[in-house]
Please model this.
Amino acid sequence: MIDSMTLFFTTDFVLYALAAGISLSLVAGPLGSFIVWRRMSYFGDTLAHSALLGIALGLITDSNPQLSIIFSCLLFAFILTLLDRRPSLSTDALLGILAHSSLALGIVVLALADSVRVDLEAYLFGALLTIGNADLIWILLVSTVVTIVLYWFWNDFVSITVHSEIAEIEGANVKRLNLILVLLIALTIAVSMKIVGVLLITSLLIIPPAAARSLASTPEQMAVKASLVGSVSVVLGLISAFYFDVPVGPSIVVVATLIFLLFYFYPSVLKSKS
Amino acid sequence: MESSDNDSKSALESSGEFSSGVLLAARSINKEFADKKILENISLTIEEGQIVTLIGPNGAGKTTLVRIVLGLLQPDSGAIYHRPALRIGYMPQKVQVEPTLPLTVSRFLQLANRHDRELLGNTLNDLKISHLQDHQLTSISGGELQRVLLARALLRKPELLILDEPAQGVDLGGQAELYRLISDISDSQGCGVLMISHDLHLVMSSTDEVICLNHHVCCHGKPEHVSNDPAYLNLFGASASGDLAVYTHHHDHEHGIGGGVKEHHHD
Model:
């Protein structure tokens, strides 16, 4: 059993999966914390759904799929930010309409473009184990960029999240910071597509911070602990997918959820040690 | 003020109308929401070291005026003058921290000023909230929260403090103390203060100028003057100046729980 485990963890595709999964978990911790604090989970969901439309459009225009996903996510993020400034529309309903219409449209376009064969299931539920060189480079690149920008603007992001008006009086450019944060989320979602898929992306962003909440007394602690919870979920999720022969994406989410439940009901588990 | 806003604004900003002691001035501010006039032709001026208090009933447009003065809201017409590069410390009416966001008092304060630890320590001491540093912002009392918010405003080393109902959620005895604290801060730091209050008598001793607002300026002037002004009495009812007699005083006594005057123990 130990042999098979060693073999498992030294296999190329498993190493790729681990590298991609952990590097995304590390940025998903702080970024997901902002999604939780700002109640943007539905927003993240909508972006993820719209990414499928991006894939479809990328395929029929014969462009790089990763670039088309990133482009469509950024575009949708931008449109949603603009629409959000019009108080006459209900954000909730608007997001619901956009999420499902773009998902449906994406599937329809994929079906119509019958010259190409697409593994729809991979985009819906993720395919961590089929990650290639190019995918990994994209993920590492985006994680690095997101980490740098987050670090650079960290105090400002926290400040506008706690109270945007005080932050504005103190000199923060609230509108610009909001947009940057939204674009970071869009970028991260765009490259996470392959790991957990459209339907499970938001959970990767939200469950680890939710699990970390009861263990944190500052925003920074919550962000870092969320990154740790995410990374542990990726590792344990991969192992259990291997042992129980189940899909990797959902398996990661199940592990993260179990960790969340554990800390939610027994926050003392880790607190006593730290 | 029918002329173009921009013209009047730039005229105000560049004109020599304001002496160097003026921190902020608003001229002929008008604002409507959904065809309802909220502010009508409001003007005010705040000078260095001066404490100006806005009083008025609920819905009188006090917070709207403050938001316009701060630049958070655009007036329909009128002009705002700021002394160039004016540092403002702002204490909003309501701060509700998202429960999913863990935040200690000291981390909250560091959002305003991360680097000056000494200033942070001194401010916490001055406001007597040093013991709250490691408490979660969501777990402290209303009165403590108001002091923490005041501390955050002070950490910007403001030339002008703008306080929206600083004493809300504070018990009566604490309210008088808080207003006296604000007055002391204004004295010691030489900063101007614009604040909103709904109780003239509590702020009387610590304010230089009162503006009584009910969509328009009903009356304004020294607190003793305003409290006897027919427009003020009309707005708040004659009882407002009845039981709690108008008093002018120096800081030689404290206010008891009932807001009444309690002499110091001379020991």
